[in-house]
Amino acid sequence: MKPNRLREIWAEGRAVLNGWCSIGSPVVAEAFAGCGWDSVTIDAQHGLLGYSEMLAMLQAVNTSGVGTIVRVPWNAPWEVMKALDAGASAIICPMVNDAAECRTFVEACRYPPQGNRSFGPTRAALVGGPGYAASANSHVVALAMIETRAGLDNVDEITATPGLDGIYIGPSDLSLALGGQPDQDSQDPMRLAAFDRILAACKARGLKVGVHTTSVAYSQAMIERGFDLVTVGADLGYLMRARREASEIRAWLEKRA
Fold it and tell me: Which tens digit of pLDDT belongs to each residue from 106-121?
């Protein structure tokens, strides 16, 4: 079976550099995958896409040989299984609040006896190659999102879930849950303390930890802090930079008039 790129990078002792796609376009996904990221996440929760777009985007990302991650819309086993059958090599599951919810998620990622994933790797077997069924449980990366006060309070129980590979932090929702603002790349001591609490719980269990950022500088700081995966940028974010550039050159042009 083809190796999971995320597991390869972690085995080398490096952090995974992740790009994020919210636009439901295989062309955007293909271009983004060619930018040099280690992995690309297709956002089926807040992204502007459905199953058909997700499938086409997975196919497009595969052409670059990078890791394929899907953030599923919710902690619904059928959503997890459909994304895996479509060929995702890793799943990010939002809003995991306690050990029971985490167990539901992880079991949807694993075939029996480790879980209850239904067998039918429609495209996954094509992507994974021979031996997919026998290797899928150790191949798929399962990342639960901690982004609520309950999730933070229950972090020790969540990280004790058998078969869980790691935690992905949603900083905006977590900040809202703690009474802060849903801003990105924050130096708020309360938020950083929450990060450190999650990091400590994961490191104690040998789990990986990822976080969503919107800049190279903040990603670098988070890697220095101990994170194993950083989302450096997103397709819509880069387009918004083009908007700022358009405003800058327009303002310059108006001054010349």
Answer: 999 999 999 999 999 9
The 8-class DSSP code of residue 3 comes to P
Domain count, the chain: 1
- DSSP letters for 15-46: PEEEEEE-B--HHHHHHHHTTS-SEEEEESSS
46 catalytic per annotation? yes
Q: What is the pLDDT of residues 159-182, one digit of tens each?
A: 999 999 999 999 999 999 999 999
CB within 8 Å of 166: residues ≥ 6 apart = 141, 142, 143, 144, 202, 207, 208, 209, 210, 228, 229
Model confidence, pTM: 0.96
Q: What is each CA distance from 112 to 7, 61, 106, 128, 181, in whole angstroms?
A: 22, 29, 12, 19, 42
Supply the pLDDT for residue 2: 87
**Cα separation, 198 vs 148, whole angstroms:** 12
Marked catalytic residue, from 3, 27, 46, 52: 46
**pLDDT above 70 coverage of the chain, percent:** 100
Residues in the chain: 257
Q: What is the CATH number of the domain that holds 165?
A: 3.20.20.60
Domain span at residue 246? 5-256
Peptide bond into 113 cis (omega under 30): yes
